[in-house]
Predict the structure.
Amino acid sequence: MIRSVFAGVCRTPFVAASRATTYKAPALVHRFYSDQATPETESAQPASSANSAEAKQEAEAAPAISAQDVEKLKQTITEKDAKLRELKDAYLRSLADAENIRTRAKTEVDNTKTFAIQKFAKDLLDTVDILELAIKHVPQEHLADKVANKSLADLYEGVDMTKSNLLRTLERHGVESFDPMDQPYDPNTSHALYQAPIPGKTPGHVFAVEKRGYVLKGRVLRSAQVGVVLDTSDN
């Protein structure tokens, strides 16, 4: 029974086709190498030789640079370097000028802010002088008896308070007074109205102050008007 089954399977188309198929080996490819140049390489070699020959001809045809041309080039480079230094120097100078202008402008603005009240304060000094003269010319013996001279004493006190308040107001804005009494005469801060020989006083020193001087933020707003001791040693 087994034989009959096996025979039936063998008679099937698949098995029959498998038996009919035979294995064919791939054909061998043989390569041959030769030291002889091919037509392509033979054509490339003449082209390369032609290029090198052409480059050599161009190099030989290029004009040679003479010593005179070299000197001209050196001179041109020297001139360019000098021009570059000149432009750099001008640039640095312009930067310095611009910085100086900014500094001066800032200083002027600061001075304008600081001394804006200069003219106004100087005009007020005349009022201070008048108040001081009024106080100075009141006899002290009249002020001693405040009962008999109550009105004068009250007026004197009011004038003195007005002067003091005005001076404090000026001080708040940078205006300060100075009194050069018994100090060496300084023409930068004082104006000598007169000179006189004063025994016991040092020549060249201030012995009288007619009007006090004033400064605004360190700058002389008004010079003090003074009398100076005369030096009589030459006589």
About this structure: The first strand starts at residue 175 and ends at 178. The two ends are 177 Å apart (CA to CA). The helical segments are 2-10, 13-20, 39-61, 67-114, 118-136, 140-144, 150-172.
